[in-house]
Amino acid sequence: MLKVVVARLVRLVGTLFAVTFLTFGMTALLPGDPVNAILGVETVRDPAVIAEIRADLGLDNPFIVRYFSWLGDAFTGDLGKSWITDQQVMETITQRLPVTAELAFLSIILALIFAIPIGVLGAYKQGKWQDNASSAGVQVALSVPNFIVGIFLIWLFAVKLGWLPASNWSRPSTDGIWANLKTAIMPASALAMTQMAIFSRLIRSDMVSTLQENYILAARSKGLSDRFILFRHALRPSSLSVMTIVGINFGALLGGTVIIETLFAIPGVGFRLINAISQRDIIVIQGITVFIATVYVVINTIVDLLYAVVDPRIRRR
Amino acid sequence: MGVSAMRRKGLHRAIAFLAAAGLIASACGGGGDSTSEPADSPAEETTSEPAEEPAAEEPAVEAGDEAEGDVDTEVVEDDTVQVSYGGSISVGLEAEVTGLRPWEDNCSSPCYNMMVAVYDKLVEQDVTGAYAPYLAESFSSNDDYTVWTVTLRSGVTFHNGVALTAQSIVDMFPIQQAGAASAGVVASSGLTSVEATGDLEVTYTLSAPKAIFPSYLARAPLGMVFEAGAAAADPDGFSMAPVGTGPFVIESRDLDNKTVFVRNADYWGSDPDGNQLPYLDSISFLPIPDEGTRLDALLSGTVDAMQTLRQGTIRDARDARDGGAAIELLESQGNNVGGGMFNMAIAPFDDLRVRQGLISLNSQEQVIEALGGTGISLPGTQWFSADSPWWSQKVAEAWPKFNFDAGVEKLNEYINDAARSDGKAVGESIDVELSCPPDPTLIAAMQVLQQTLEATELVNVTMTNYDQQTHINNALGMDNGFQGVHSMHCWRWSSEDDPTAGILAFLSEPTNFPNWTGEYADEAKALAAESGATDDFATRKALFEEIMMIIVDQLPIWYSGHTATAIGTSPAVHGLNGWHVPSGDLGIGFPSAEGRWSEVFISG
After folding, report:
1. Would A111 disulfide with which of A192, B142, B310, B352, CB 3.0-4.6 Å?
2. Which residue ranges form the domains of chain A, and what is each CATH number?
3. What is the pLDDT of residue B523?
4. Nearest CA to A58 among A48, A69, A47?
């Protein structure tokens, strides 16, 4: 087991090194000069001022020097300071991560709330109209991009019905849980749509197999109700794949809410990343990208290790 | 909102989101400021009156295009509703403001909305476009405009309780000299020293005559007054907690979410009836980058006001209003005009015949239609909209109109010239790289131009789209001696500020974007310099007309339509249209969707 852990950790370090190098390299290779962003479109370009700003930012140093300098700082948790806002990148991330994490968490909860009954129903009524209808619905949910769902939700619940605010994120700490949920429910629902579709497909297919197990037949022969069998005996063993995907998707959502955060003007990590990209704030782009990649890679590594714990065959490889 | 309008809006939003996917920065535009310098101002002891009443009697030529739609809202006194104190409003902005330091943070329209809440400017423009004292009580110059004396209002304090004195302005100067946003402005203004020559008297000394110096005091980098002590003590922190003398005091700043300002109870300003300003208890600014969501936020009451610099959003807002939605629109047709430039340093754009041919093939009406601006944006012919006092009918008439045959003829002249500058064989088509930022409407507009050019069978068009920063850099060419790597390049021209500085910046070397040099450029530059050395309105107008005519002759740039902007409000919000300068005259209104919030109040 120790060997497996060490191997996974070595791979983790290697992956992170590659991620940081590629991120740093790609942002450095991007055409366009961050000095432009700092000076703005119409500012008179005084070459002396430009040279001074470039020197201040260290842009005159070779790429490799800048990379290792940044990497050394990153190891100590210092991801640098925004060239545009002067805010520390780590502070930027820690301020916004709870917002994005809340969205990701809510969307997964919402997705599970709908995915479980849909998946169970599809398996229980396999091949019947209920299964076909739920499959068709799931296909639609998978096909419609989440921002389209978001636009529709805004139109319906904000403009037409006036039940929810179109944007204006409320923080639970200052505005209360209820106000926070009112601003979170639409973006979380938009994000949940695709998740729900994926989860329900997984639950359905796993449960179809589970329902063919002997112990299910035994339970039926004992006269237990279908609902009891489905939710007490079949659901738990059919949830392993979905639980794995939930974990991975949660990690992916931390970096994958960019469009929805922009649409709803939610001050999360993705919204900041988009702003940083439009402002050519390279330090922030690097910091957030590396952070997201790190979270994703770490979560995957943890999942790998958990597999090894659960499945002895993996430990022996 | 009508069903068809809603469908169209939804479709536009979907397309925009797919294509833009977060490229929020307004493509090619949005009107940054920082450098640009503003308008005319009298040199003698100033009142709010302009040096001369600008050409109101100028025949309103192409304003006949008004028939296409109501393109702006007149700035008028809003005296139909009783002013009342109290209440809060929230305002949706098109982007988050990167910082609130006038000397450091490059400022565009969203930023101005916030900055004017917390800072006062020494000088403001009145409704005629003339410069009027604001935080300054008066300003005047010596005879040759090299020394300017500004007298500050008495009894003004900063939000931290520090009294405003002449020394406050002097202390700002070293910070402004070093600031990323202000250093270039200090240099272009020729400002060499700022001295306190009395408790409230500040003397600005310039290296060269500058009759338009007050225009510099009407924009953020040099004109917004901040508490230098606090700025020097914590320059980074100042961005989040700015200290000015403005009508509102910052209460909280939650970056990317909400910035809240509360009433400055000690504010010096009052309305023409003597009521102390501001009226509102607080005002919140919310960055909502998606145009559709911002409009929906207004329609649903999530915000009380919103700004837009997009004609598509103005169109949707008009549709919503006409469909019965309870909103009001304050529209402005700006001087800022879309279009582009040629890189005259490279072939074939170094040849006038090519530029003439390509511009003759630019159907402005079709381009504006593709941009979604029909009835909203007027075709550009110069750096001034028809409402500007500087607008010239002569230039409007002289600007080449769409003429396919004439375009083909000019291109043929070049193509069949054995000495053509691009080195190609006689009869071979010319190559054009048409480049714009990846904004969906811009791409649609450029496709219209591409189709027309290719229909001649004389032009091979390659369309490229780079994000805004890359697009700027391609034109700037910091790596190749500022020559750039552009050829036919989308760009925006002009602003509401004084034309002199804008034209000088346009022609300044080495960063002259179209690489327009030679005798005509020199002549235009000399005329621009001359326009900055006099405050006589008629003289300056004539000089600008001459410059615009040189542009018509040489065609380093082309135009599509003027930039329409708007502030939408709920019907309960008043006072945005019809704010005042201290003399009691109306202020300039809401150009570039920049609101002034001190006289805003809520009815009912």
Report:
1. A192
2. 2-75 (no CATH), 92-316 (1.10.3720.10)
3. 96
4. A69
Angle ∠(B193,B196,B201) on CA atoms, nearest 5: 115
Amino acid sitting at position B228 = A
Q: Which helix (H) or strand (E) holds A148?
A: helix A146-153
Q: Is B270 helix (H, G, I), strand (E, B) or coil?
A: strand
**Residue B356 bridge partners (DSSP):** none
Using the beta-carbon criterion (under 8 Å), do B474 and A31 form an inter-chain contact?
Answer: yes
Query: Cβ of A271 and B256 within 8 Å?
Result: yes
Tokens 């006001």, residue located: B305
The neighbouring-strand residues paired with B307 are B567
Q: To 5 degrees, how large is the angle CA A85–CA A90–CA A94?
A: 105
Span B377-394, pLDDT tens digits: 899 999 999 888 899 999
Q: Which residues contact B215 (CB under 8 A, 6 or more apart)?
A: B37, B38, B39, B40, B41, B123, B131, B497, B498, B501
With tokens 């639950």, the residue in question is: A203
Separation between Cα atoms, residue B474 and residue B515, nearest integer Å: 13
Paired residues of B133 in beta bridges = B123
- Locate the domains of chain B by residue range: 337-562
- Cα(B545)–Cα(B316) distance, rounded to whole angstroms? 36
Q: Chain A closest CA to B91's CA: distance in Å? A: 10
User: Is B349 or B43 the better-scoring residue by pLDDT?
Assistant: B349
CB spacing of B99 vs A85 below 8 angstroms: yes
Question: A residues 180-239 near B, CB within 8 Å?
Answer: none
Where do we find the tokens 């060997």?
A3
**Residue in B with minimal Cα distance to A91:** B255
Helix (H) or strand (E) holding A276: helix A269-278
Provide the 10 A C-beta neighbour count for residue B419. Answer: 7
| Distance (Å, whole) CA B278 – CA B576 | 12
Give me the DSSP letters along B458-526.
SEEEEEEE--HHHHHHHHH-TTTTT--S-SEEEEEE--SS-HHHHHHHHH-SS--TT---SHHHHHHHH
- Across the interface, whether the CB atoms of B181 and A39 are under 8 A apart is answered yes
Greater pLDDT, B466 or B432:
B432
Q: How far is A316 from chain B (nearest CA, A)?
A: 46
CA separation for the pair B536, B434 (Å, rounded)? 40
Give the B window 164-203 contacts with A, CB below 8 Å.
180-181, 183-185, 187-188
ipTM of the complex as predicted: 0.80
Task: Burial-class residue B224 by CB neighbours within 10 Å (0-12, 13-18, 19+).
Answer: buried
Nearest residue on chain B to A29, judged by CA atoms? Answer: B470
pLDDT value of position B41: 32
- Percent helix, strand, coil in chain A, to 5, is 80, 0, 20
B85: left (phi over 0), alpha (psi -120 to 50) or beta: beta
d(CA B127, CA B133): 13
CB contacts, 8 Å: B287 with chain A: 265
Rounded to 10 deg, the angle between the A89-124 and A240-256 helix axes is 140
Chain B residues whose CB is inside 8 A of the A271 CB are: 256
What is the distance between the alpha carbons of residues B96 and B93, in angstroms, rounded to a whole number?
A: 7
Sign of CA dihedral A50, B101, B470, B528: negative
pTM of the model: 0.82
Q: What are phi and psi of A206, to 5 degrees?
A: -65, -40
Gap from A201 CA to chain B (nearest CA, Å): 27
Q: What is the rounded CA–CA span in Å between residue B242 and residue B235?
A: 9
Architecture of the domain defined by B337-562: Roll (3.10)
Give the tens place of pLDDT for each residue, B317-369.
999 999 999 999 999 988 999 999 999 999 999 999 999 999 999 999 999 99
Give the whole-angstrom CA distance, residue A32 versus residue A16. 26
